[in-house]
Recover the amino acids of this structure.
């Protein structure tokens, strides 16, 4: 007979049997979040930098929003600091580098080796467009400069000489386009051998090749190829009485403008109905065809356009409701309607009769672009969707759709909508804009990178070779390298005090002028992070959403500068908790006891269990995440071959204490009768994994055996036939410690006895609650937003929203909280609900076992 083991009652510290409320690991001190969440910022008693204002912050790029634009066989990117870089085919100097050498088709031609286009002393760009074989930019002073192919005067310089193909032709030597006395431009679009610009007075002017009337001037005479044709001598496009332009797109042989009232007008070649007027007659090549005589495109009842894109004899418009409608030539399904029938070339095909492109259930678009390839007759369209996905359809012989094959999409039923796969841009990456070339496509990603796929004969993908991408399996996603970064970036490593990587840490760059959020990222499993930011000077702040480590600045804090490249930084977060290391040995043999169960209990918290693990083959175990203070380490051999033992120890933050334990041998109780059961949460019915089930002989409360529940909550105890009392412990502290059946008192004598063999299920009452909800940015989901729950003792937990803007924070101690939301991609920050400071933020209660719904709109 085994003697009664009083020490097992010490194992569970009997006092821990009381109903407990576990305090979530919080940051002691005042509330700090990304340096802007509280006016009173203290971190563990240390003063932190305090912003001059708190609340909503919209810190955008220092100059312009990055842009990517694709020509027939080249592409250009506009970085946040206003620099233009072009790569791919350079036969006519369309890359603007003073030679005709292609870029991106050989190793070490991209990245830092790719020179910026010289726009002139002190000049930068604010808008960009890559045409078929030429490129144009709107400069920071409103001038327009174009370079590359010029046989039709598309550079707007009064001659037909190429620019950018020889030394000394760029920079201050490249004249700006004469737009008229006192006139500047706000937008530019380079098409196939012609160019159009929206001026500061909202007039529209076009120059270059005028085949089919694409310049919209009522004739077919080229403009810009001879002296005296530009400036005030170049008539504006007549859009109708009192009408002006807000956007323009120059395509293969026709052009379209979005008017100030949201209507859309198109002119030029119309052989396949690309003008959307229900016929095939060209417009703009003869008198009386423009102005009020040019009908607007019928987009449907009440619908207007926000953007337009022209491809090869087809046109696509982004409507005010986020839908896309396409018309014109439909070979290869470039209209995305599940067939190859042209639209817009006959009556009754436009307006409400023209279906919108099916982008998928509930999906809308944020940008659209169409490509054209006159040589192959191909055309395709790409769109960035409201959830950050990218989808492309149409001609795909070169892999321009980015789907790992060469099959066109949109020319057959069941190829669009949810049946059309999104382009795989890489783990966690989303698209903010798309650019479609002739047979290649590019996406501007949320991290400022550009990725391109499709044909690559001239290096237009910018990958240092001429191999196509996207037309075979395994070429997209993380396997597809980035072409170029259009934003400067911060990258580095975040670790704890022991040098271990802190996966999931939220790392943000704070603008030193006002502490606005300029960008941020979530550290990967190896603790590394990378995110784009505009050029400038920043403070780096990090938060561990598990609250196991102190939030804080990198350095004292230390400022870091970004100047068009990637700046490397590293930071360490001090642990809020300590650890205990123990070696468990046999008292008789002095050998290790493997498989022993070690349980840490907080004596300062009434014997609350805080961590548990089993010893390894060498008898060693390490328990981390312990609050500073006094603890008890209780060790039991689940087989019953050793008596239990305990030892007290103290824990300090960011340190590891040694507390070795020696177990005396005893004769284990017999086996042969299986006692089975399952541990579940009484509120949610979810399984309780990793729970401890300890069996005591009912007659004298002697410890017999112990087991741990599996991932499904199930457990099995191999006991001798008889009567037992069971104790259930959740080592995480997220559930009340209970005797069978639902007895949370301190007296095990009152517990209900069970017989082996048999079944004994247990529902454990939760001691923590959670908060969940959806974050939106305007009228769309805010993916990758940070949501942080802030309690009276600091940050209690955090989460990152998914693609639909949903999040969930678990393990919150009952109490009152405030919620703060940061969207690092847009720089938006606010408290729930619309609080401008921590003190003004709305308070929401969390109760044990319940979910507190907290939605927010930034």
């Amino acid at each position: 007979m085994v003697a009664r083991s009083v020490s097992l009652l010490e194992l569970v510290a009997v006092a821990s049997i009381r109903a407990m409320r576990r305090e979530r690991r919080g940051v002691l001190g005042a509330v700090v979040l990304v340096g802007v969440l509280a006016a009173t910022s203290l971190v563990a008693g240390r003063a932190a930098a305090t912003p001059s204002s708190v609340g909503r912050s919209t810190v955008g790029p220092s100059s312009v929003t990055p842009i990517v634009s694709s020509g027939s066989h080249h592409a250009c990117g506009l970085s946040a600091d206003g620099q233009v870089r072009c790569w791919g085919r350079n036969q006519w100097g369309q890359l603007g580098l003073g030679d005709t050498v292609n870029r991106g088709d050989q190793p070490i031609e991209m990245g830092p080796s790719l020179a910026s286009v010289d726009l002139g002393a002190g000049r930068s760009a604010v808008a960009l467009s890559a045409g078929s074989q030429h490129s144009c930019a709107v400069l920071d002073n409103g001038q327009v400069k174009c370079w590359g192919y010029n046989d039709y005067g598309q550079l707007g310089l009064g001659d037909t000489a190429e620019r950018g193909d020889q030394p000394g032709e760029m920079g201050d030597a490249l004249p700006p386009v004469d737009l008229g006395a006192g006139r500047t431009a706000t937008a530019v679009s380079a098409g196939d051998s012609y160019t159009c610009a929206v001026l500061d007075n909202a007039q529209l002017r076009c120059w270059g090749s005028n085949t089919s009337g694409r310049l919209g001037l009522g004739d077919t005479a080229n403009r810009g190829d001879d002296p005296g044709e530009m400036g005030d001598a170049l008539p504006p496009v007549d859009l109708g009485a009192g009408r002006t332009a807000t956007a323009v797109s120059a395509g293969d042989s026709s052009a379209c403008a979005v008017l100030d009232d949201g209507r859309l007008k198109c002119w030029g070649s119309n052989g396949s109905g690309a003008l959307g007027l229900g016929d095939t007659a060209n417009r703009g090549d003869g008198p009386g065809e423009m102005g009020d005589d040019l009908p607007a495109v019928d987009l449907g009842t009440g619908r207007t356009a926000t953007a337009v894109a022209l491809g090869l004899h087809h046109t696509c418009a982004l409507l005010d409701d986020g839908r896309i409608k396409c018309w014109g030539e439909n070979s290869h399904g470039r209209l995305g309607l599940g067939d190859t029938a042209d639209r817009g070339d006959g009556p009754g095909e436009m307006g409400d009769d023209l279906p919108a492109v099916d982008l998928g259930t509930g999906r809308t678009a944020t940008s659209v672009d169409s490509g054209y390839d006159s040589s192959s007759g191909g055309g395709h369209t790409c769109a960035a969707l409201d959830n950050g996905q990218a989808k492309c359809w149409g001609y795909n012989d070169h892999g321009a759709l980015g789907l790992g094959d060469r099959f066109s999409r949109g020319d057959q039923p069941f190829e669009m909508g949810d049946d059309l796969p999104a382009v795989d841009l890489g783990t966690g990456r989303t698209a903010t804009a798309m650019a479609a070339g002739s047979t290649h496509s590019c996406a501007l990603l949320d991290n400022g990178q550009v990725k391109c796929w499709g044909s690559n004969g001239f290096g237009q993908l910018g990958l240092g070779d001429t191999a196509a991408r996207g037309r075979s399996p395994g070429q997209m996603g993380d396997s597809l390298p980035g072409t170029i970064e259009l934003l400067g970036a911060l990258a580095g490593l975040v670790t704890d005090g022991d040098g271990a990587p802190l996966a999931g840490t939220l790392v943000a760059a704070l603008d030193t002028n006002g502490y606005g959020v300029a960008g941020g990222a979530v550290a990967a499993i190896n603790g590394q992070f990378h995110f784009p930011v505009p050029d400038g000077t920043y403070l780096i702040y990090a938060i561990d959403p598990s609250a196991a480590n102190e939030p804080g600045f990198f350095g004292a804090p230390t400022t870091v500068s970004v100047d068009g490249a990637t700046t490397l930084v590293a930071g360490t977060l001090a642990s809020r908790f300590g650890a205990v290391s123990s070696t468990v040995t046999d008292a008789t043999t002095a050998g290790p006891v493997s498989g022993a169960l070690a349980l840490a209990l907080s004596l300062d918290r009434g014997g609350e269990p805080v961590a548990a693990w089993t010893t390894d083959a060498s008898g060693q175990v390490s328990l981390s995440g312990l609050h500073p203070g006094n603890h008890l380490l209780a060790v039991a051999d689940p087989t019953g071959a050793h008596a239990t033992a305990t030892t007290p120890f103290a824990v300090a933050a960011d340190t590891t204490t040694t507390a070795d334990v020696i177990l005396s041998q005893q004769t284990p109780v017999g086996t042969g009768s299986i006692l089975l059961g399952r541990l579940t949460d009484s509120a949610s019915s979810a399984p309780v994994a990793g729970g401890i089930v300890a069996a005591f002989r009912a007659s004298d409360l002697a410890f017999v055996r112990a087991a741990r529940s599996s991932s499904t909550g199930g457990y099995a105890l191999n006991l001798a036939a008889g009567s037992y009392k069971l104790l259930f412990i959740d080592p995480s502290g997220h559930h009340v410690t209970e005797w069978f059946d639902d007895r949370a008192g301190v007296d095990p004598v009152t517990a209900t006895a069970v017989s082996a063999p048999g079944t004994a299920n247990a529902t454990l009452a939760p001691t923590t609650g959670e908060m969940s909800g959806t974050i939106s940015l305007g009228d769309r989901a805010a993916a990758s937003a940070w949501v942080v729950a802030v309690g009276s003792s600091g940050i209690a937990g955090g989460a990152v929203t998914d693609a639909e803007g949903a999040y969930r924070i678990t393990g919150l101690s009952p109490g009152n909280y405030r919620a703060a939301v940061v969207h690092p991609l847009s720089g938006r920050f606010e408290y729930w609900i619309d609080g401008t400071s921590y003190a003004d933020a709305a308070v929401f209660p969390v109760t044990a076992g319940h979910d507190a719904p907290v939605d927010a709109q930034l």
Notes: The chain has a mean pLDDT of 87. The helical segments are 6-11. The first strand starts at residue 42 and ends at 43.
